[in-house]
Request: fold
Amino acid sequence: MAVPELPQRFQPRTTAGRAGLDALLADPSRAVVGLDFDGTLAPIVPDPAEARALPGAVPVLARLAPCLGGVVVVTGRPAADAADLAGFRGSAGSAGSAGAAGLDGLVVLGQYGAERWDASSGVLTSPPPPPAVQQAREALPGVLADAGAPDGTWVEDKGRALAVHTRRAPDPGAALERLRGPVHALAARVGLHVEPGRLVLEMRPAGMDKGGALTAFVGERGARSVLYAGDDLGDLPAYDAVEDLRAQDVPGVTVCSGSTEVAELARRADVVVDGPEGVVALLAALADALGRE
Reply:
């Protein structure tokens, strides 16, 4: 049987990326598709609580997921929050609510893999946060005040992580640079890692990143190929994981949900698409190629 092909605009520009896409299309039941949430399935918005997956995201994933060995959303958000904002949960939308129809093979790994929500069962696994997060939570208001944090700076409390956002500040880039040193100093003092992002500095426990989460999920599913799509600096470890898997004879392809704010991802990606709309269009093309009308 001939291996299906995607439209030219979704063809990888690298030899390794082409091998990864070919492997996925040739044997989708042993393939994993990994996705970031913010900036990849959902447009970036000033208030993260207002983020929503594009309307076409859930329907296309419901078409695609049954063809694959697994679909995993890897995000810094709490897993339950991401599942709700994405529209993955059933109509009940409660902690024990299984996923919408067609999403049985989908998993959300939140807090960079520390939390997990399975669409097939609705089960949420969420260990307690380490004490260092509480120490940072108590100290952060004073640190920001002493640093002269500009108006519009605000803190998103994720339970196991604290994210300092400057997108609402009059000069977001300058605000981020003003706070970078003090936030890093606080994180070092309490034993947390700082993950930079698009106008955000996130303090979280060390040892958890999207690369480790993706690698573990690929191993869990026994996948023989992988595609990962992201948009931010926090997705670089997942790109590294895809490259490491390639070295272990697991072909892979990296996709950048294009942004002028993070050029490094676009330089490294095998495929660059036009933001979340482009990601959903790519997923739809995969579903079409695999015969899920």
About this structure: The CA atoms of residues 145 and 265 lie 33 Å apart. The longest strand covers residues 225-230. The domain at 131-204 is CATH 3.30.70.1020 (Alpha-Beta Plaits). The first helix runs from residue 15 to 26.
